[in-house]
Every structure is written in structure tokens, then in C-alpha cells.
## 1
Amino acid sequence: MSSARRSYMMRRVLHGAMALFIIATLLFFLFRLGLPDPTAALITEGLSQAEREMVRARFGLDKPLWEQYVIYLVNIVQGDFGFSFHYRAPVADIIWERLGNTMVLMIPAIILAYGVGVPLGAWLSWRRGSRTDTVGVFIGLMFRSAPMFWTGMIAILFFGIFLGWSPTSGMRTLPYEASGFLDKIFTLDFLAHLILPALIVALYYLGSPLLIMRNTMLEVYGEDFIEMARAKGLPERKILYNHAARNALLPVVTQLAVTIGLAAGGQVVVEVVFSWPGLGREILNAVRTSDFPLAQASFLVMAAFVITLNLLVDLLYTMLDPRVSFK
Amino acid sequence: MRVNNTLLSTALVGVSLLGITATPALAQERVPAINLITTTESYDPIRYEAAFMVAERWRELGLDVTVSPTEFSTALERFYDQQDFDAVILGWSGRTDRLDPQFFLNTLDSRQAGLGGNNPGGYENAEYDDLFDQQSMEFNNESRQQIVQQMQDMYKSDIPVVVLFHRDEVVAYNQDAFEGFQVMAGEGLYSEWGPMEAVPLGDRQTLRIGGPQEPDNLNPLDSTSVWGWKWMRLYYDRLVRLSADVEPLPWAAESVTALDETTIEVVLRDGMTFHDGEPVTAADVAFTFNYYLGQSYNYFNSYLAVLDNAEQVDDRTVRFHLSQPSASFGSITLSQLPILPKHLWEGIEDAGALAPSDIPMVGSGPFKFERFDRGEYMSISKFDQHWYADNIAVDGVEFIIYADMEGVYTGLQTGEIDMTAWRMEPGQIGLAEQQSHLNVVSVPDFGYFHMTYNLRRAPFDDRAARRALTRAIDRNRMVDVLLEGRGEVGSSVIAPVNAFWHESFVERFDFDMEAAREELRAAGYSWNSDGHLMR
């Protein structure tokens, strides 16, 4: 078992690395072919052609494409994401900071969505066909379908401006000096800034765990072991949460992993509406300014997240469901 | 369409080779289709709509017009780098240093017509180029004014570019919190004077500005954005500052004197210090200018093109040696370059490679640098030892960076910020006017939105066609409908608000479809039975 697991792991890690290499290559060419020259915007500042050539040379864009590509790959392998064209700062510093900001928004939102969505879905499945079920499913679908810029703006308008209960933008009240990241997020002020955007994201995410849980539960109810549990005379609540729910968790876990993986990219819309300084907003800016190093690295980090989490989920499966084996 | 025309002209060539002569009227062919490039609706709805207004009228004249909304950087690339366009709607922003006529006049100089140059339309007029050189070397303002106005007259009748309109910048501030702002053309409230003039009315003594734009970086040798310099100029002093009426005022300089045509002597004000306590001397000034010259690239390259070197004469005197006389050196160059502390920069070989944390943020300006949290916030505090400090009422300035104008307006509404750094969205103006604590201010701009014709391509290679098509543009309607009246129809690349240099007696090309048709007819154009314009 253990050696099977090890070789399985090795294989998966290798696949992941290959996927990352392909993604890195695609990103490199995609941005260079798809985005305009990063120095194009400098014209509006009145730069002459000769001056732009100097800037291009400084960015390394005067080298042949294959040479740029090789430099790029070698740097990535060494963990060097390069220097941002626009900010003139190391890309890694920018990304880690922004990724942190995004995660402190997304993780609570996801925990909230799944913490509420999963038991709620299970409960709705138990009350299937009733009015509660209809209303519950409707609400889940409604928030899933409502665009977040709209729900976000309504929330800002109502709670921020009309009631004045909540800050409307950013992640802290400025001016504020934090000595480090933890110092920045372990404050009541941060919590106050977090509530609205996190709630909006959580409401949006709520629909998936709720519906997936509800539907998987309905399938599980038909299984023999549920019949068996009933025959043993177990209370309905125990059947629901101890027997049925545990067996319905698998698809939810997959969905959760995908959600967390994609969360690295943030929710651009929410980050813009709430002026949250996260990675999503940064990616948008990077594409806008044709900041190749920053855009490449951001997407690569997102890809790495998704791949790693998929790997973790597959491992988790073997623990949640003994029927899954390493073959 | 173009294929058809090529086929047609090939056929015609074939016909004439066979010796069959067609009558002149039959030899006319359809005027080529026009592809009009503009911005996407999401980038700028105004330019987008303007293009459709133009296209509608040109179609009435019998032209085949396609509007191509193009992503902004791509549009810039096609216009400047590839010159692959028939006609383009783009714009130039009004920046203080462009109040000097040099920059905008240069966009019609034939030496800028190459790929990547500032004259992508390709206007070529040797006489205009001569006058350009003359004005750039003319120290006497009255004589220079005459040349500048003559140049505007000269290009205007050839109409290589249509200045569509100047859009007012509509900004707002919280009048319960601050007063005393003087607006500046092209700069609005967020001019270099704004923070120095603001007087707090409430408890908070710190002025809070909000905007969606942030500096690319705060490296004085590396920043290439106007938003970087709008902020840095508050904590780096300059030898000269331009007043709100754009008059050059000696600032860190006590005097600026032209010793001869190519030597300018600056005597520094006595007793200035940097924020780290070191004195500001002529050595620092000479070092700064020479340091900029020595870097491979910087934002001020074009201003420094005429400078050979800067020489320290004594502790307070610097001499600038120019390679040729330059009218704008004393006003523009000296008012744009910061003064850097020599003792902190002289050891830095390649300033472009500095990591943000290694940049010495020490200047000698009226404010000193405090903090920059990218994407969130920047702050500066008043520098009490500055000679102008007693005239400054605020104790500092904070700039809150929002993701978009929606966030900025919300901040203005809730009192989180005191003023907007940039123009409000059209929809917000009406809302702001209803708020009792907000004062909405309209500031005329000298930047402009233009339609540039590609003079290398038909029909724009023909002066008469350009003149006629320009007369078919209803620019009043653009201002009334698209700008809701907040702007002015353009008449010259030098805006009316730039009164000293603007020539008001240029040909205006007012909207008149009949006159447009008449001009085409007179130049030998005709219309076929389907109403298509033929040449």
C-alpha cells in the first residue's frame, strides 16, 4: 500500500510539473502575441521612438523571442519571477503580498459558504419537495446568478452609505501602519472591512455546496445502508448527518478544492467594487499595462494552486472513500 | 471594398492599355472605404460614440465608413507604431508642461512623421518645420507668440488633424472640510498648488485625495507616468514652479538669467535643506541634471535634449550649457526636473535597477515622503523647515487609491476623502451637485481629443477631401450630447484656454453639410447614381 501510494504520488507530481511547464509556455507566448507592446502606452507621455527603444531594451524585449523564453524558463526554475515592467519591483514581492490579501478575503468567504451550504443542503434534501426546499434552492440559485458587482454595490449603498454601518472600500482604515501582514489582519478594523465583501463572495459561493450536497444526498437516500440504518431504528437525524451526509461529501470536496484553487485569482469584480488590494485587481492591471512578467507569474501561481489542490483532493479521496485505490 | 477598387483600377489600366480611351467622367472610381479607429465603448464611451457620429455624416456624403472600436493599447500601436489606419480618434492629455506650445506643435512636424513618431498622420510642410525651429529658439515671448500663431494658421487650412473638442475636467471637493483651492487648467484640483493652498475647516488637518490611478513607481529616475510625477513633485522641489496661470515662478531658484543664448544661470535660494537635514547646494542641482543626462533613459529625456551639461559655479550658482537656444528650457525643463540629493544618489550606478525599498525618498520640497502602500495608500507630511512652510495650512496629504471612480465617488460621499484627483464619471456629476457638502468644479482642459487623418492614404491624401470631410463633422453636437455641454469645440492644437499662445482667428470648419458637398464638387468629386462618392 505504502509503496503504491509513493509511486502514485511521484506520478502525480510529475504530471503536475509537466502541466505547469506547458502552462508557463502558453502564458509566455499568449501574452506576447495577444497583448500590445508594453511601451505603447508611453507614447501618450510623449516619448520618442528612440526613447521607447531604450525602454524596450531595459525590459529585455529587444532580444529574440526564443532567448527571452529561455531566460524566462531558467528564471522560473530558479524561483525568480523577474521584475515588473510597470512597478519596477520584483514580481514575487508584489504577488505574495496580493495573494495574501486575496486569501484573507476568500478563505473566510469559502469557509462561510461551505460551513453553511453543506449542512443546509443536507437539511433541504431531507425536507425535499417541501416549501422550505423550494425557497432554499431558489435563494441559493438567486445569489449564484446575481452578478457580484450588483450585489456588492447594493450592499455598499445600503450598509455603507445609507446605514453607515460598514466601511465601503479597502481592507483597513487609513492611515494605518502595520509592521507586518499578521499585524495588518488581526484587528477589529480589518474585520469590519472584511465583512461586506466576504459576505458577498460567500453568498455567491453558497449555491454550489448547497445544491451539490442536496442532490448527492437524494441519491444516497436510495442506498441499501440507509435502509439498513432505518431498519436498525436509528433516529432520522443520526441517519441524515452520520450516515448519509458522510457518504455524500465526496463531490462537495472536489468542488471545494476547485473553488479554493481558483480563489487564488480572487474575485476580480468584488476586489474592484470594494477596492480590495488583491491579486485579481493586480492581474487586471497587469494585463491592462501589458506587464508581461507580472501577468505571467500571477497566472502561473493560480495554475500551481489549482494543480496542487487537485493533487491533495485525490489523496484525500483515498481517506474519505476506501474504495478509491492507487491504481 | 478595397479589393473591388483594386480590381476596378486594374481593369481601367487594362482598358487604357488596349488603347480604348474612356471619357474622364467614366474614369472616376469610387473613393476608397474608410476604416475609422476609435476606443472601445468600455474604455471611453465618448470617443466611441463620437466615431459613430462622424461615420453617420460621412456616409451621407456617399462614403463607405466602418467604425472599428479597438482596445486602447492596440489602437495606440496601430496609430503610432504601424501607422496602419485611415482615420483615428484619440487624444492628448493636458499636462502642465504641454502648456508650452512646443509639444503640441511638434505633433505636426514632418520630422516626427516616421514610424513611432508623434506625427503619425504624416503632415509634411517644410515652412511649418522652419517656423517650428524658429519658435523653439525664440526667447522673446512676443516674437515667439507671433510665430506660434502663424503656425496654427498655416496647418489649419490644410487640416491634417481635427481637434474635436476639449473636455472640461469636472472634479469635486468637500467644502465643509477644506477651502481655498485654486483650480489649474489641465490639472484640476490635484495641481501642485492644491495641497499648498488647501485650508482645513474641520478637525482633520490632513488633506485626503482619492483617485483610481496610482504611480507606476516612485523612482524619480524610472517613473514614466504622470501619476508618479503628480505625487513626487510635492516632495521634490523644483527650480521653477508654474503658477496656476502658468507663469514660471522662481521657486528653489532665486533667479534664472540667460547669460547668453545658450547659457542659463540659476542662483539658488539661500538656506534650503533636504528632508534629511543636509543643505541644498548648487552641487546637488548640477549633479541632478548631469545624473539624468547620464542615465540611459528617463522621463525627461525630451526636455533634456538641448542640455549639454550643468556646471556648478559656486555654492549657490549653477550654469546650464545648452547645445542650441531653447525657449522652453527656462520654463518647462527647470519646472519639471526634481532636485535630488547628491550625497544619496551619487553612489547609485544604475538607478533603473533599484528595488523600491532602496530608493532614497529624500527631497527638499514643501512636503516629505512618508509612506506608499501599493494599491492602497500614500502619504506625505508637511516639511516645517521649508521656506514656504508658513503658507501651508495642512499638516500633510494622504492619497487613497481606489479600484475605480465608483469607489472614489463613494469615498467623497461618505467623507472618507476630501477631493477627487481625477475627473468624475458623467453620471456622478449630477449626483455630486445635489450633495450639499460637495463643491463641483469644471476646469477647462488644454489637452484634446483629435481625429487624425492618414495623409498617405486616399481620400485623406487630398486636401480638398480633408477639408470637406472636416466640415461634415458636427462637433457642437459632440460637445452638447456626449460631453453634456461640459467642454468646448476644438479649433487648434493650442487650446483657447492657453490664451497667450492660442490663435483665435484660424479657420473654424463649422459643421455644414452643404459646404462640404460644395467643396467636394469644386475639387472634381462627383456622385454616382447610387449616391457613392466618386473621384
## 2
Amino acid sequence: MRDVAVIGFAQVISARERERNEVELIIPAVRGALADAGIARSEVDFTISGSCDYLSGGPFTFVSGLDAAGAWPPVKESHVEMDAAWALYEAWVAIQTGDVDSALIYGFGKSSLGDLHEIMTLQTDPYTVAPLWPSMVDLAALQASVFLAATGRSDAELAAVAARSRRAALANPYAVAAEDVAEDALLARPVTHAPLRDADIAPITDGAAAMIIAVRDVAERHCERPAYLRGIEHRVDPQGLGLRDLTTSTSATLAAHAAGVADGPVEVAELHAQFSHEELILREALGLGDDVEVNPSGGALGANPVMATGLIRIGEVATRIRSGAVRRGVAHAAQGPCLQQNLVCVLEADR
Amino acid sequence: MGSVRTAVVGVGQTRHVAARHDVSMAGLVREAAREALDDAGMDFGDVDAVVIGKAPDMFEGVVMPELYLADALGATGKPMLRVHTAGSVGGSTAIVAAKLVMAGIHERVLTVAFEKQSESNATWGLTVEMPFSAPLVAGAGGYFAPLIRAYIRRSGAPSHIGHLVAVKDRRNALRNPKAHLHLPDIDLKAVEESFLLWEPLRYLDTCPSSDGAMALVLGSEDVAATVPGPVAWIHGTAMRSEPTMFAGRDQVNPRAGRECAADVYAQAGVTDPRRDFDCAEVYVPFSWYEPMWLENLGFCAQGEGWKLTESGATALDGDIPWNPSGGVLSSNPIGASGMIRFGEAAQQVRGRAGDCQVPLHTGRALGHAYGGGSQFFSMWVVGAELPA
């Protein structure tokens, strides 16, 4: 496999964006990533995005998104209707074929335009589940209940995750749900979807994120300390809630194993947990020890621009490696009800 | 092109009809996948990864339906990708799947593209008023008709050329048992007398709305040596996109299409497509797009496409048959239509195209798809022989 590294990353985040449309969110994200990498748009060989039409309520969201990224003269381009972490995967594959040496990846979405939690109901089986209208929060609460019951844990552990995430988010300029709050204070707040409280649920967030990756020689030319993708793997579980063990995430474990998470020390992990209990499930599924710093950015509980959230996890780890703060980290992305599909990425500084 | 030589080792598709009330979406995609795996002598367990493609989710009303379909396609515990590049998606999906093998990441990849248009309404799905955007409210035909009128004005083509394509492709479809439209009585007069939808397009100049799925199994050179049937080697793949809102675009003869073709021809060593291909399966959803794409893809000089069509060169017995399967004009499960082109091209070079089979001289064929407002293109060249 060719060595591929993250050399540029940028995000544009807003709690509920009233002024700018998706194109106007993508433009500064793409420009920011290019500037961060110190590379010209015309020098980037491949372009790919991840988005979801249903967030804006119309078809072909990615079409105008491409205008924001720039496509003249015509470009080699693709799009996945998936979190942009999977766009990164397709870009990595394109580089592995030898056809291209660098790629621009971006993800975007404005969850505030509709009712995100009900829109995601439409991800479920359209014949047998969706007609019952379980919202994504209902399904998550079901998983949280099963998980707590099976493991004997309490909602205090959920509150601990939520409080730590919200405090960490204070240091993240892109977070939209940040506060200096203690676990006990969160426990005193009302339970909204038993056993979950509002702080256990990722906030509605609008935004875009963009990333530049490149093969070793391009990366070394543009970046003092590239963050190399040592392993990037993804797996999916069957969707039916009766077809899988909700107390764990089998596909996350498979992806982590294939990506080589355990092949070295993990200093930091950014996990795409949209609910507090998902972090607890993912820590175990990925085999992360208690010494691993999890979600120093505040994670998805701090900001959740759907379709970019997973890519941002990778960007957050890459940024810490590029700054020299850590040498090796793990980033994770998820989509689908109850952590159905998972991508795990191991990033490392060179040598 | 990657280092691993890659082939289409299995092809399967549903019959295409207006409404498959007898199957769910999962049943539809599984039917195509099962046929492709049988063709390859494989089962779901043999597959390393699954790549799914379809056009906008609003065509069925399911958000990211691949999540619900993962189980039906045997993707449990495997990597699964969902591609969406507008109408070109069927082709793009096949290319993404092929890259997984070319790059040496996987040995056997199942790729499936589908649309179950009867679950929703495509014209509605295409004309939703978007926040912050000017509504188009035109559907696909309303979008492309002015471009066709521009082509007619530019080329001086006589008005019956589109109708010739409408008749030719429907006659080809009579030989294809899986085609949606079987119109045994179609002739020039019937097309001319069908009602006008978007000038100059009449009802019979347009594609149908179909339910259907197409599946391919792609394998490495090692895998190709073990499968029971003939394979179609991939000689080149290319994708190109250009902006939507840009005054410098030529939407009648898009630069992205020309450059995509030049790229895939260069990979395959094709210098004269009319001579170097035995046939082409090209995305022609409205009849006039045959002469337009003949020019865009370099099968003739600019302004000459309509003459090639009129001469009969693109007919089943012509020197360069276009859409021997009946094409998009005869079957249009939108998200699958591109992959059907890619798969039918593969079937031709495998000698498996049944009554639609063309004689093989060069043993090579072109698969083509486009989408959006002619800004997204995907193409591949397949051949009976190993690529050079």
C-alpha cells in the first residue's frame, strides 16, 4: 500500500446557521483545508464529498457543493451518500490504484433545516420499522437501556461522559455545546428519553469540514509533520435491532482489528459517539484502555454537523499528530441506527 | 489504473418493469445480486466487499437505504460503500468497486445499483424546492429539451433524427427479455404522433420510469482464472465532473464528457472509437442524446453525429451499434441505468448478450453514463482479452 497522510484540515461550524447555505459553508472549509496544506486547488488530483439529501430536503445536495469546491477545468470527482469519513476511504482507495496522488475530501450538512431525529427514522426498514416512526433518539435510548441493563452500569456513567465532553468542548472553538459542568449537576437534570438526558444527546449542528490527503512525497513537500493513515477500515452490521447484540458493536470491533488499533499504543481517540452510551460501547469495542484520552475535542456531543462529524474525528486526531502533541491516535466514524456501520482509522506520525 | 488486472466475472439483472409490486427493495437488489453471483459461481460468503449505488434517496423515500439493504446483500461484517453521483451513479459505482480490486485491497467485490421508482415519483423527487435556491420545477426532460434544441440549431439536424433513435432502441429492446418496454408495433409514425412533452421531445422520445437492479461481480486476475464463464477485462475507467453554475460550460457538448472519454480511451489504447469498439452502451435517456453523445465521445466530427445516426451506423446491423440492449430508452431504473450500460458492454465482450449480441471483431466495448445536468460522467472500456 502507498503511504498516505493528512496534510490539511479545516471546519466551519455553526449551531443553527441562519445566514449561509451549504455552499457558503463549504467554501471557507475547502479554502481553509487548502491553505492549511499549502497546496493549490489545481494541484489536488481527486475530489470527493459526503452528504445526505434528506438534511436539506431536496435531491442532489452534493451537486451545488461541487461548485463550492471548484471543478473547472473538469475534475476527477465522486460522492458518497455517507459520512465524509467514507469519502476519505474512497479517496484513499483512489490513491492506492496509483491513478491519483492527492485528494480533497469534504462533508457538509445543515441539520437545523428539518427535524434530524425524525428524518433519520427514514434510515430504517421502510416496510416494517419506519411506519412505527421510532426517532433516532428513541432507538439510541433503547440501546442505552439494553447496554446499562446488561452491564450493570448506571446513568451516572453516562453523565460522566457527557460532563467530560462538555468541559472538553470549552477548549474547542468549533464546539456548540460546551459548559463547565459536573457530573452531579447533569444527573440533576431531567431524563428526556430514558435513560438519556439532553446532555447525553449530540446537539443539532450545521457545518462543513474539508481535508487534504496526499501520498508520501507530496505530503513531505507540503507538510512538516504529516499524519499518516496507517490503517483505515470499515464494516457494517445488519440493521435489524433483533439481528445484532446491542450491548456491543461487532462491526466496530472488526474494523478496529483490521485497522490495527492494537498494534501500538493509542494516545488519543476521537470517537463518533452521538450519545453518551455509544462512547462506552465504542471504548470496549475498539479495545481502548482507561489510559486513552477520548474525545479531547468534546466529540460529537460537543458539535455534530451530520455527514461531517466522522471526518472531523479524523481531522481532530490528525491535527494533534501534526502539532506534535501525540504520535499515534485512533479516529472513528459511525452511521446508521445504533452504531450500525463503523469506520476506524489509525493515524501516526512518521517514525 | 491500478496494478491488479481486474475483470467482470459475473453479471445479473432483474427484469425491468414500471412497478415490481412482487418484491421489496431488498428483494429487488437481492434478485440481481443472486443472478450475478450464480454467473460467477460464487455465493454471498465469497464476497469481500459490497458497493451499492443509486440516485437520490427521495426516489424511494428511504434515507441511505444501503443501511437497511446491508443484510439482504450479505454485507454483514464486511466493508460496504454507497455511491451517489446523480445519473452517472451506476457507472461510478462499478468504477469504485473495480478500484477496490485494482488497488489490491479486495479479490472479489459485489456491486449493485438499483432504483425502485414505483416507491415514489421521480419527477417530484427532482423538483423539490430547495431552501435558498431557485426552484427548477422542470424534471429531467424540461432541463434537457433546451439543450437538445441548441444542438439542433448548431448542427442543422433534421427534426426526425431523434425519432429514428427512439425506434431503433425500442426495436433492439424486443430482443432483450429483461427490457422494460417491449413495443413491437413502434415505427417512425408512432413516435411522430405521440404527444409532445418538451419540444422537440415527444412521449416516445423519452425513457420510461422503471423498477430494476443491476449487479456485477468484479474479480482480480487470480479470481478470473477460477470462474466458470468468460470474463470481461477492464481496460480503462474514468470519471469527470464539471460545475453546475458556470457560464463557461458548454452543456450541449460538455468538456467533462470529452475529457472523460479521452482519459478512458488513452488507458485502453483506443484511438478511433468507431473502429476500435464492437459496440457501445451509452446513456441515452432522450432520443436526441445519441447524436449529441456520438460527437461528445468522438465517434465522429462535431456536427456529424446526426448523420451517423441517420446512416444506420448505430443500428444493430450497423458498423458501430449503440445500445444493442435497447438502452435507457427501453429500461430506466435511474440509479441502475449506468451500471446496466457497463454490464451490457461486459456481456457483449463475453459473448453473453443473447439475441442482442453483436459480432466481435476487436472484442472491446464502451460503457458510458452521465448525470445531473450533463456535468457528471463515468465510463469504462471492457475487452475479451487481457489488457495490454
## 3
Amino acid sequence: MNKRDVNTAHSGQPGLGNRELSRRQFLAGLSTAAKGSLIVLSVPAILTACRQADESTGTPASEQTGDTAASPQYRILNEALATELDAISARIVPTDDTPGAREAGSVRFMDVVLADGRQDQLATIELGVTELNARANSQFGVTLFSALNEAQQIELLTAIESSPFFSTVRYLTVASLFAMPQYGGTGPDVGYNLIGMTHAHAYTPPFGYYDADYAARGE
Amino acid sequence: MAENAAAKTYNTRDEVDFVIVGSGSAGGIMAKELSTAGFSVVVLEQGPHLTAADFRHDEWAIEHSNELTWNTRQGHPQTFRRTENDVAQTGVGGLGYAHNVGGSSVHYSGNFWRMRPLDFNEASVRGGVPGTNFVDWPISYEELEPYYTKVDWEIGVSGQQGPWDPPRSREYPCPPMPVKSSDVLLERGAKALGLTAYPAPVAILSQPHNGRPGCIHCGFCNGYGCEANAKSSTMVAMIPLALASGNCELRTGCTVARVNTNEAGRANEVVYWDANGVEQSQHAKAVVLCANGAETPRLLLLSESAQHPNGLSNSSGMVGKNLMFNCHASAVGLFEQPVNAWKSVPATRVIHDYYALDPALGFYGGGGIDGRHPTRGTPMGSAMNALFSGPTWGADYKRNLARNFSYTAAFSGHCTSLPLETNNVSLDPELKDKFGRPALRTTYLDHPDDIATAKFFMERCLELMDAAGAIQKVGTYPENGQRGSVHLLGTCRMGNDPATSVVDRFNRSHDVPNLFMVDGSSMVTSSRGQPTMTIMALAFRAADNIIGFARRGEI
């Protein structure tokens, strides 16, 4: 039985396999968060809470450049790319009085999930970082985004926050806060502690404030 | 993974009584009913046989890597377009269903509303909708009621008879789930507006039943397999009984290629790829397709032959047509105290005052409203969100995360879809899946009445939010139309007239006497947004009739 390559079979577009541009809102309000992300929510995801379509179009990833040599400590990222992604993710979910993206191991998460069948997204991320560094240079005379101060970094990211590149890094950063440790990060505790989620797999009533005295009130 | 070593095995060259394609909501029931009635049964299932031990709270695997639902990553790409004038594309929409023993009953949220008598004859009672295929069912609620009750007791449903629920022959086997704060708020809003919220029926056990435990309220229902076996999937409620009968062989990892017919026009062979990708075929006296409302019509279209040039069982041209998603709307509200809607089952109260909208509104529709977590209760999904137009990154975004996860509730409207020939599944002319089969192509644009109904429900949900005391709220509905669904309905519709329907009132093909289609594809109308209870009742009823036909030599 020949297994045909799904990546070469449609409309002359190469590499569709992991390059689906899902603009569908997966959860209520998600479009504001995931718009334009190149790898978010590949179809068909679980659509139960699928909301209305978001008609915006993203730009397909260009062909992978293939000139990336992964650092020994990463599966797919090189050191320079990892340094910039670390700086970006630290602005997306900063470390303040509570842990942020850095403590969640966001970059290691990105490395693992990109290496897991999403390699063709790397070129987009590399290009995005290159462009961001170029902006750092033209606006602030500094050659690396990571070398900017916090206010400068926020200013540059705000300018590109609707780009597919930023959406993709933002998506991966947020995911890393809650992902299980086998995906390269430090596990979900950074995210769980932030939102008040626990590792308990069982709860008993009352579940929240409003059902606590439901019966007593005769509701 | 489950071990099936002790179960019965059949030789593919031997003719078994039934081959069942798919082991989900309908297939699992069919397997149990036919095998325990003494017939030899082979079930072909694309996915693996998972168990509770395989299910985890792993959002990245389930929601972001499609571990259960499969897509391009697993070699099963789909395409989507709005109308036949568009070129369908990947990555812009599609259909979702779980690929595993038990099918989507493993990952569903288990909202088990029965349809009402009105659902079966609404076109006559209310009047048709020009330009649509909105017609009566060939069966009535009364005919289906015993099988709804069978679902309640054999599958396992928790609930309490509501004020407008259709008559039932037996009480629910399990009492309703304990109310959640999100639904206390829904109920407060309802009371203030003169509406009635009552316990939502769910296919999740509130107490031990049929040897399974009650729910532990972990909150990971919608999209996830149940780690406690409290969710009433056919994986836990039916398949074990089928295997224990000694008459059923469950072949997992088997993807069906086509159904062949002999010179007499009878289905006699099901061709499939086994778990090693090797082509096999199983001979059978009769074939039952339970592959869901997407894969059943796709398989019929893939089974075209000189005898059946438009696809098997498609003399009506209706195979794949009349796809219905159900429409939906939602309002999300922020409250002063912790709601924690992420705990326990998705919904514990439902409002059915708007079950059938007044025709004077100028559009057809109806549905129900229940309380939910805004993002199905999962942390990663919630954090992806930026509710109330708040920032999507940075310090303020981070600060809002906790508030958005625990202090919000959603009131969700679940409503009707009209059947249209222009909404359908078909074979993509270019894209292939990993087996070289034409990919599933979906063409869908909601009828204007469906959109109007969704808007109506969003407005009601927003009113309820105000009445419940929300301090901030936002409403959504698919204004420009949906681009996908997990509700796959209507694509082999049931009817008395072979010219306009695919199966008869007993789920038998009008064209091929020993071929049956039993799943969401049989549905004539869409229900009010919770179709699985009806899919399962139809499966029990079809099995009952098929057993009778087989015993009387009428297949």
C-alpha cells in the first residue's frame, strides 16, 4: 500500500502538512489572542466551543531556510535565536512578583514542540527575529532585541503585535505556562499557580462562591 | 491501551453476519446489541482502543496536537469552503471527531437532551422554510421514546425531569449533578426574567451505575477522555459487553477503503487497511456504517462503482448533503466572587423557554441555554483568551489571567440548523489523505435563519448576564457563519421517499437492502444543539429492527 505524501498533494502548495493557517476561533474570544498565529489550533481541532470565523488572512511560512544549526542544548533552535525568543517571551509573560515565561521554560518548550513535526515553522520565526533585530538597530541603534531595555522592547513588540510572527511566539509562550513537562518546559505550575488551578483531579461541592449555600438559601 | 486478546476472532474470508464500520456513539451500541443477540460481528475502528489510564489533562496533546481528533499531523487533512463557487482550502475550517474506540462519545461533554415530539414533525406544525429541505421525520417521538430510555439506563444518564421535557417511560437512573456556581448564576438570571432553569441531563454518572463510579468533578470533560470512567462513552458502557459476548471482534487501527457490492447489488465485502497498512477485506452478510456524519457519506462516495456511479446508496443524490452543525451563541460575564466554572461537568442547568421561537420573529429556530466556563474550563485554553478586549500579553494580561479563569461564567445558547443541499461533505478533487483517498471536503454556510437564531440567543444570554449580576459582559455569535463543528448531522438523511432520502425509517439503505447507515447522518433535522442522545437512541432502535430483520430472513 503506497502511502502518498499528504504534503505534496494539494494545489501545488508545498509543505501543507504542518502549515495550516487556522484563523478559526477555537474558543470564545480566542481570535484576539491567536489571530494570525501560524501553528495555532490546526484543523480539525475540537470544535465544540468553536466561535465565528475570523476572516483575517495570514501569510504562509516561506520555505525553510535550512541554514540553522541547532545548539547542542536544543533540538532545533540555535543559541542566538533562543536568546531572542527568551527576551520576547519574557515581555509576553513577564516575571514580576510571580514567575513568568522564563521560569516556565518557554524557550525549551518552543524548541521541543517545533522539533515535533512543526519544523517548517522555524523559518518564519527566524525571519521574525531577524526583522525584530533590524528594527532594534534602526530605531535604537542596538543590534539585538534582547539588548534593548524593557520599555524599548515593549515598544517594538507593540508595533508588531498583530503579525503572524508575534502571534506564533505569543501562542507558544502562553501554552508553555500550562504544558506538561514532557514538552520541554518546567511543567504547568507557573501557569497553574498564576490562575489558581490545582493539580487535584477530584473536587467536591461547593465548587465556587455562589453554590456554597445554594440549598440553604432555597434557591 | 486495552487488551483484546481474549476476544473472538474471525477469518476475513469467512462471511460474518455483520461488519460494523466505526465504534463510536452508534457503532458501540450496534456492536453490543448485535453481538449479544448472537450474531457474528466484526467492528472496524480507525483509532486505538484506549482506556481511562490513557487519558490525561494534557492540553497540548489533546487540544493543540489533535491527539484524539486527528488532522494533518496524523495524515488526515481536510478542506473547507463556504460555497461551491469557492476553492476549498486546508487550515480554514473542518470537522472534528475523535478517532478511537468509542469515537466522540469519549471526548464529548455529554449533554444529553432528548428531542421533543415537536422536533419530529416541526415542518408540519410550524410550516416549512422555503429553499430548504426542512421536513418531518418519518418516525415520531413516541416511537423513539423506549430507546431514549434505553440510553438513559444502559449508557448512563444523570438528570431530573424538567417542566417542559417530553414524557418519559422511566425516571433517570442517576440524580442530577450537583449545581455549579455558573449555573446558580444562570438560575438567578432566569428567575429574574421569568424563565425556568432546571437540572441539565448529562451522560456522566452522578453516582455509581452499571459497575462504573460517579463523577469526581475534575473538570476535564469537554474534549478529553474521562479518567474515572464516569463519563458514559460507548467505550466504557457498550464495547466491554460486546467483547464479552464472545461474538464480536474489534479490529482497531483499521481504516475502511470501500464497501463492495456483488452482482445482485448487495454489500458483501468491506475493504480496509489494517494497523500495518496492509489491505484486507472482510466478507459479511450485511454491513452497518456507523462512521459518523462525515465519514459515512465519504465512505459511500468512495465506494462508487459501475453499478453505483454516484457513490453507493446515492440514487437520491443526497449522500453528504444537508449537513447540519447546530448554531450557537454565548455571553461571558465577570462576577465579583469566584465562580470556578472549570470544576466538574460542563453544564448543570438548562433553560428551555426558547425551545421553539415564535414564527412572528420572522425566522425559524429554537434552542436552549446552559451555564459553562467561558473556555471549557481548561487553563491553557483560558489563557489563550483575552476576555473583555483586554491586553493579550504583558504585565496587565498576566494580571487578568487569574480573574478570567475563576471569576467568569458563560451562558451558552445551543440552537438549530436548517438542512440545505448546499451544505455538505464531499470528496476533495485534489487533496489526498495518507492512504491516498480524496480528503474530506466540507462546504458550509449557515442559513440566514440560523444566524438570526444565534443572534437571538446571544441577546438572551446577555440579558441573563445582566440579570445574574455580571459586572462586565461580552457576547458572541457566528455572525459570518461557522467554519466547522463537531456536530455532523443529516448527511444520509432518513425518509420514506427514496428520491429524497438515503435510509428508510429503519436506517436501511433505500438502494442496498443489506446496508445500514446508523449515526448522526440519519438525522432529518438538527435537534436543539445536543444531538448525541438522539444518535444513540436511533442506534438502539435500528439495532432492534435489524435483529428482527435478520431473524426473519429479511436482510
